[in-house]
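Protocol check, entry for the methods section draft. Step 1: assemble the input record (protein sequence plus ligand SMILES). Step 2: submit for complex structure prediction. Step 3: store the structure tokens unaltered in the notebook. Ligand used here: fe (ii) ion. Step 1 record:
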Amino acid sequence: MANSNYPVDMSVEPEVNAFFDPVTNTISYVVKDPHSNACAVIDSVMDIDYAAGRISYDSADAIISYIKTNDLELEWLIETHVHADHLSGAPYIQEKLGGKLGIGEKITVVQETFGKVFNEGTEFQRDGSQFDRLFEDGDTYQIGKLTAFAMYTPGHTPACMVHVMGNAAFVGDTLFMPDGGSARADFPGGDAGVLYDSIQKVLALPNDMRLFMCHDYGPNGRDIQWETNVGAEKEHNIHVGGGKTKKDFVKFRTERDAQLDMPKLIIPSLQVNMRAGRLPPADDSGKTFLKVPVNGL
Ligand SMILES: [Fe+2]
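Step 3, stored output:
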């Protein structure tokens, strides 16, 4: 899969291990460079029992234990976007194993929007400084000897990026499995037309590029799956495959989104993920609280 249009060697096959969280239907990944012990973690999860206000780390601990058992060196923790349906486990994993935490540079737009929604004070920086690296479109970085690049794919949120590592691309929420279609585009800063254009960028990758989803809900009762490829999405994706037009997609997506409930964990997820997965600072009692904006979303 040599392809000079892209700044990575697409003949390199990273080893990809998936971790499925059945509570939020999120798939996290450990991606290993085939030529060294270096690895990256993509879209990890911190567990929350929201009803009880209780945070725990079983999902993140499973990833940590995998990395330790296999003697891997964690170089990157990548967030494909600010998730609205689960809390990120990245800072917890970073504390135990090191590595740099990265997200798209447009995180600043998301921080601006939700800084207002949650009425955060000036101590909440809106400049992305909670992260170690803010990726711009086309930026490359190394995971050991493996070159990765970040492709800007807004639409679901303004900060979404797809990360291409050798012959594997981590699509975040730009696409679901072919029978799952696409993610919603109605969050603040989302845009169905922009999402369609971003999906075309993903579909322009080589047909045999492996695509790894961030979510799967097992439509029509099938087992959970997370891997497909560009050719299969182009042909069979129920929302964009078979050459569906932008006009049709925008109409369908807009009508569908109007009927969707808010994700159960959107309120804690945004407050934590806009801080790179860290909880808000403790108040003067030393306790940590999450807010619920009444009629604010
Ligand atoms: Fe998302």
